[in-house]
Fold:
Amino acid sequence: MSKIPLYQQIINDIKKDIVCGRYTKGDKIATELELSEKYQVSRITSKRALVELEAEGLIYRIRGKGSFVKGIPSKVSTNKKEDLLFISPFSHDTSFGNYAQGVFQALAGTPYRVVMLGHDQLSQYQIAEVVENYAGVLFYPMTQEIDIDWLYHLYLHRVPTVILDKEYEAIGFPSVVADNEQGGYEATKHMLASGLKKIAFVSSMPLLEVSTIQTRYLGYLKALYEESVTEKYLYQNLERLDLDDYLEEVVSQMLAQGVEGIVAENDIVAISLVNQLKERDVQIPEEVSIVGFDNSQASQLITPKLTTVAQDFAEMGALAAKRLIHQIEEASIQATQDVVPICLKVRETTYQ
Structure:
């Protein structure tokens, strides 16, 4: 069974009908409703297919009347490898972290289009289908353990690929990452400057599984070293407990050890810690300061507002897209790395 996106199947079928002469210039083609019924898809999907065909100059649309064949170009391909596959963490979050915004901006004026795929849908695909249908891949891995097979097979098939947010030194793909070490360093340095000494680093998963967490932790260690602070407090979810259960244990341990500051792996962990501490009537930042990572929207909505390390996701997406286009057009894969600067956003969970 084909795993080509449904909207792309509609596009390919209509292109074939144009090429073989079923449709000629000025002919009206099926409506959004007719296509959705024929292919058993939503109106959103059928509309996207028509919008894509219009963008390619194959049809034109008249409001209230329908879609019509514009003409038959000298060359119409039903399998142009101009689609780029963007594998993001979650299918329901297709604009993940504004990466997509940067990708779309970088692709403006090029023939390339992006197909979003959630990581949770990846098991439905075969590597051969990606090789056949996509010009290249933007890949945001979840963990090294989960994604290394996919990435290595993409490499063996020489599929142009750029890795976002993670590093895989053993696989020769280019990557685009934030300056995670500097982020961990600045977050820790900020709390040290407030006179705090007992500062913990909290991760929701084993440290060695995710390169970004590792490098943030190295920044944390560097800041402690520069200030001659020898006590370090590392908490990692080695037993893979439910996040709330795990953080409840962590908070109990930290309070017993007199921890004064926390560098959290990301904003999700930081916000959960804020909530856990508030439930225990711990004053933030008077008793415990907290810094997150990502500058998520939620970081500005909680009380107190979260101090966090901001990453320029749009810039990372744009750089990744440019790297990918270069690979495709130059037919060359080189293991380069772009490191995008971070910015510490000081808010209410730490001293100003």
Notes: The radius of gyration is 24 Å. The chain has three domains: 6-69, 83-178+313-340, 180-311. The first strand starts at residue 59 and ends at 62. The chain has a mean pLDDT of 88.
